[in-house]
Design brief:
Blueprint: E1 11-13, H1 22-31, E2 41-44, H2 47-55, E3 63-66, H3 72-75, E4 80-83, H4 97-115, E5 122-123, H5 129-134, H6 142-149, E6 158-162, E7 167-170, H7 180-183, H8 186-204, E8 210-214, H9 229-243, E9 247-252, H10 254-257, H11 260-263, E10 268-271, H12 274-285, E11 290-294, E12 300-303, H13 320-340
Helix pairs in contact: 1-2, 8-9
Length: about 350
Amino acid sequence: MTHAPLALSPLVASLGDPAGIGPELIAEAWARREAERLPPFLVTGGASLLRAAAASRQIDLPVETIADPQEAAAVFPRALPVLGEDDGDWAPGTPSRDGARLALASLDRATRLAVSQSAAALVTGPIAKARLAEVGFAHPGQTEYVAAACGVAARYAVMMLAGPQLRAVPLTVHVALAEVPSLLTRDLIVRRARVVAAALERDFGLARPRLAVAGLNPHAGEDGKFGDEEARIIAPAVAALREEGIDATGPHPADALFTPRGRTRFDVALAMYHDQALIPLKALDFDSGVNVTLGLPIIRTSPDHGTAFDIAGKGLADPGATIAAIRMAGECAARRAADRNP
């Protein structure tokens, strides 16, 4: 028996900092919606700001304000649907507290729509954390904010960077490199690897995902010559994962893990610290990298780049990562919907 394609709720996108490249790239994504086969999405706030940002890229952007997210699918073919009246002046490259307030209001409303299932997935625009902190944002980043809104402890929300050539997960994220060895534990690796394996199966359609776990030290410690974290922490974690039926290998020397041949042997790399994961991802997939938050009851993606204030409004920002984030959010949402309605 065949089933008709499932009708999903639209995706929702937050503006990001209005002085950054987020608004213009949202406009560019809508302009390319047919060529890129993007699912319908709406934006929370910023109607006039989006028009101005689009004009900087010579895009004549029709915007239609909607009162209900379910109007978005009908509006999307002819105009960019924008929910709500929140708006502000467009001042590219000049972040301000008013802009941060608009970014936070947009993020808050978009997140609530996703949590309430009024939107099929959440795509967040890039923010300036320091500016948001000035207006009361108390979280280290959007990942932690969205996790809290979902009622999920931050330790169970896992950041994965995904591009056409690589998926990578930093097991420790925004901490000083000197702190990493003391933060690594067997429990941390096992807990986060479980989240990664389950998410790759549920949201990315991988029946038995292959996890490659990197070492911390040069040459994965070289039998203790360069450190004992591999033998004391990482290898026992990998063994525990394999006992649970998870296809995990390692610890692998990080300098060989991301080579072309190395990447054919895994579906995701688990790195010990931020740059160990993000340097290869950005080297390979800078203009198409997506930040995905795993372990949440909702789908959340974001382009894997920042606000880029220095090039905002100059027509230089590449829309590839924003388009990829929207597409990936739609694909993951469709898989979840199919699982609910086999």
